[in-house]
Each structure stands twice: as structure tokens, then as C-alpha cells.
TrEMBL record:
It is found in: Cytoplasm. Pfam families: UDG. PANTHER family: URACIL-DNA GLYCOSYLASE. Its EC number is 3.2.2.27. The lineage of its organism: Bacteria, Pseudomonadati, Pseudomonadota, Alphaproteobacteria, Sphingomonadales. The gene is ung. CDD domains: UDG-F1-like. Keywords: Cytoplasm, DNA damage, DNA repair, Glycosidase, Hydrolase. This is Uracil-DNA glycosylase. SUPFAM superfamilies: Uracil-DNA glycosylase-like (SSF52141).
Length: 228
């Protein structure tokens, strides 16, 4: 694996994962894929970007994705987010539609979600790498076990956290989250294939902020400033 770039708060609790046999096997798989000339997204320095931008002790909201975007210049380590200058994908446009409907926010002109991550929104994909143009090509290679460990660490936090689980995959992934302590909000996936089956109109963003404020935390600023 490349030099691991993630916030210090995650390193000690995740050390057993990084030193495990399954992670060694995952590392060998990724090295072999690159040696075979395959293009992997995102770049190695961004595999753990979500954990670098959002320290464990600062996590207030978790949004779970499946695997990274597999098109050129899209993925950069945060689920649903794309780099500045890249057209927002359809699922993200539906997220923006819901933000507009729920909170009255003007739709951003970009799809770069780092502003959320820096406020404590952990934008975590279940699988952290993908081969170019091949969705889910790195599933069942070990990443799911690693990100389960991440979710368990967040679940163990003493402060309540909001989990936004969109679609059946995310809901199964976080089935062990303690809903007696945390707020677990479920809806259909924002994909155009399912958004009209319960994502649009779910009002998850206002519910998230109401829960945070109820527990003495500042709300998330879901608006996205322009990027240069």
C-alpha cells in the first residue's frame, strides 16, 4: 500500500486491521493489479482521505457509499464526492435536489464535498478502491472488513452520531449500529434508479441537524461554497 495518509486519531485503533492477514492479502492484490498495468481509482494518497479529513473524535454524521466512482478524475476518497471541475454524477444531483427541497439550499455548481467532511461528516465508501471502468471490481477483497471496523469505532463513540443509510447495501453494512444511542436514518439510494422510491422527500438533512442541536452540537452547514 502507499504511505498511509489518515488522521492520527484513527491510527492506533485501526492498527490491528492494518497488521492483519486480510489487509496483507489486500495489499498484495492491489500491488498485482498495478503491476498488471491496471488503472486504480482513486490515487493511492487518497484511499483513506475520508479518515484523514474527519478525525474519529470529530465524527458527527456518517454517510455510507458502496465503492468509488470509476471514471477518470472523479474519485478522490470521499463517497458521492467528485473533484472540482468534474460534473456532479446523477446520484449527487439527486442529493442536491433533496437539499434544496429540505433546506432551501441553492444547488451547488460543483460536486466537491470536502466542506462537509471538515465539519464531521464521515463520507465513507465500503470499498476504497476500484479498477477504471469496472464498478465493484475490488469488492470482496478485504476493504469491507476494514470499513466495518471503522463503523464499529464510530458506533462505540460516547457521543451520539447520525448514520445516513441510503439503499439496501448501506443498511445491511451498518446493521450493527446501536440505534438506541445513535440516530439511524434509512431511505432509498439517491441513484436515478431508486431516488423516487423514498430518497427524494426523506428530509434527512433537516432531521440530522435537529438531532445534533438537540444533543448540544452545532448543525452541519450543508451548503457548499464555490471552489476555485
Amino acid at each position: 500500500m502507499p504511505d498511509i495518509q489518515l488522521h492520527e486519531s484513527w491510527k492506533a485503533p485501526l492498527l490491528p486491521e492494518f497488521s492483519s492477514d486480510y489487509m496483507a492479502a489486500l495489499r498484495q492484490f492491489l500491488v498485482a493489479e498495478k503491476a498488471a498495468g491496471k488503472t486504480i481509482y482513486p490515487k493511492g494518497s487518497e484511499w483513506f482521505r475520508a479518515l484523514d479529513l474527519t478525525p474519529l473524535d470529530k465524527v458527527r454524521v456518517v454517510i455510507l457509499g458502496q465503492d468509488p466512482y470509476h471514471g477518470p478524475d472523479q474519485a478522490h476518497g470521499l463517497c458521492f464526492s467528485v473533484k472540482p471541475g468534474v460534473r456532479p454524477p446523477p446520484s449527487l444531483l439527486n442529493i442536491y435536489k433533496e437539499l434544496e427541497s429540505d433546506l432551501g439550499l441553492t444547488r451547488p455548481k460543483h460536486g466537491f464535498l470536502e466542506h462537509w467532511a471538515r465539519q464531521g461528516v464521515l463520507l465513507l465508501n465500503s470499498v476504497l478502491t476500484v479498477e477504471m471502468a469496472k464498478a465493484a471490481s475490488h469488492s470482496q477483497k478485504g476493504w469491507e472488513r476494514f470499513t466495518d471496523a471503522v463503523i464499529r469505532l464510530v458506533n462505540a463513540k460516547p457521543d451520539p452520531v447520525v448514520f445516513l443509510l441510503w439503499g439496501s447495501y448501506a443498511q445491511k453494512k451498518a446493521a450493527f449500529v446501536d440505534s438506541s444511542r445513535h440516530l439511524v436514518l434509512k431511505a432509498a439510494h439517491p441513484s436515478p434508479l431508486s431516488a423516487y422510491n423514498g430518497f427524494l422527500g426523506c428530509r434527512h438533512f433537516s432531521q440530522t441537524n435537529a438531532f445534533l442541536e438537540k444533543h448540544g452540537q452545532p448543525p452541519i452547514d450543508w451548503s457548499l461554497p464555490d471552489v476555485v
